[in-house]
Design brief:
Layout: E1 14-20, H1 28-39, E2 43-47, H2 50-53, E3 62-66, E4 69-73, E5 78-84, E6 90-98, H3 104-118, E7 122-131, E8 141-145, H4 148-153, E9 157-158, H5 167-178, E10 182-190, H6 199-213, H7 222-238, H8 241-257, H9 260-280, E11 288-289, E12 295-296, E13 301-302, E14 308-309
Parallel strand pairs: 1-6, 1-7, 7-10, 8-9
Antiparallel strand pairs: 2-5, 3-4, 5-6, 8-10, 11-12, 13-14
Helix pairs in contact: 1-6, 3-5, 6-7
Length: 348
């Protein structure tokens, strides 16, 4: 039985979760939840026992000095609560941690126990996958759910992904079996610049979360960081003709696949976001999930000058992969990677 002392009664609570590791290309998803904690000054109220779920030879604890005293931080998953003010205040339960090494079902059941005790009405899980998407275009975000009614109400894809999955997919499925509405949002991260951070993908996830929950998220310096990131990648790509040619191939494939109505929907969403902000006022070791459900490592390498730069990727036979825009489920649902959740894919 989970007993939460010191946590006030929550208002229309929604749980937002992200996990470092295979489901988190470019650290885009975990950074998004960290941003919410920072901007809304989240207070940690619970942490899962690290020894129950983590292999410390895979995710090692870290040592730090605190006022001359040596302390250890253990890898785990922590929960915090933030209250969003305004005319219609509501609470978010933020879950940020690392994909567990073992006992995934118990891990999910423990998180669902917290959700039940707190009266959580919806679980939103953020993820990011590597895909064939150009860094110069808007980041593809796919939203999926296993709930047919929820898919219809929230304009989401009903996932039909089959293949390897990660904790994002397992947690979403656990929510479904427990009768808790759950949604996965996946960002597509260019595989040729997979090294974190990726503020552009983080920003895209937060924008989609705003639309999904109809709230305004203070973005701070993220928009400027995203612009600076793109300029930096532009400069690195320009140094290598093969990379520049490959990026152009991805751009052409992306632009050809874009439907006029999709552009219209994007403009409408952006206008609604503008109105919301105006009215609201004020302010890993290992690979990552890919569009085909496999693993990909960091594709960046050091140049002779010591700077990181995109590598020379092999030229695709057709110019774009089958999941280049939104993942394995791109057409039928986003899911790719672990759960097929991602950019180009979407999770279960």
């Amino acid at each position: 039985m989970i007993e939460l002392e010191g946590v006030p009664e929550l208002i229309d609570p929604v749980m937002v979760a992200a996990f470092e590791g295979w489901n988190d290309a470019g650290d885009a998803a975990s950074t998004a939840v960290a941003h919410l904690e920072r901007e809304w000054k989240g207070e940690v109220f619970a942490a899962l026992d690290a020894e129950d779920y983590y292999d410390f030879q895979v995710n090692r604890p870290t040592v730090f000095m605190d006022g001359g005293v040596r302390k250890i931080t253990w890898p785990t998953t922590r929960l915090s609560v933030v209250r969003i003010g305004g005319d219609k205040p509501r609470d978010l339960v933020l879950v940020r941690g690392i994909e567990p090494s073992m006992r995934w079902r118990s891990f999910c059941n423990e998180l669902l126990g917290f959700a039940h005790e707190l009266g959580v009405e919806l679980v939103v899980i953020l993820g990011a996958l590597l895909g064939d998407t150009p860094h110069t275009r808007p980041v593809p975000i796919s939203g999926t759910t296993s709930d047919t009614d929820l898919a219809r109400r929230m304009d989401l894809e009903e996932t039909k992904y089959e293949g390897p999955t990660g904790i994002v997919g397992v947690l979403q499925e656990a929510c479904t079996h427990a009768g808790v509405p759950a949604v996965s949002l996946w960002a597509a991260v260019p595989h040729y610049v997979s090294q974190p951070p990726n503020p552009k993908a983080t920003l895209a996830l937060l924008n989609r979360l705003e639309d999904l929950l109809d709230l305004r998220i203070p973005l701070g310096e993220l928009p400027e960081d995203a612009r600076a990131w793109q300029v930096g990648v532009d400069q690195l790509a320009a140094e290598d003709s093969e990379v520049a040619e490959y990026v152009q191939t991805l751009e052409e494939a992306r632009d050809t696949a874009e439907l006029p109505e999709a552009s219209g929907e994007a403009i409408a969403r952006e206008f609604e976001r503008y109105l919301r902000r105006r009215d609201g006022g004020g302010p890993s070791s290992g690979g990552h999930a890919t569009a085909d459900g496999g693993e990909g490592g960091s594709y960046l390498r050091d140049s002779p000058s010591g700077r990181t730069r995109p590598p020379k990727p092999p030229k695709p036979e057709t110019g774009t992969g089958p999941e280049s825009e939104t993942g394995p489920e791109s057409e039928t649902g986003p899911e790719t990677g672990p759960d097929a959740d991602g950019e180009d894919s979407s999770e279960d």
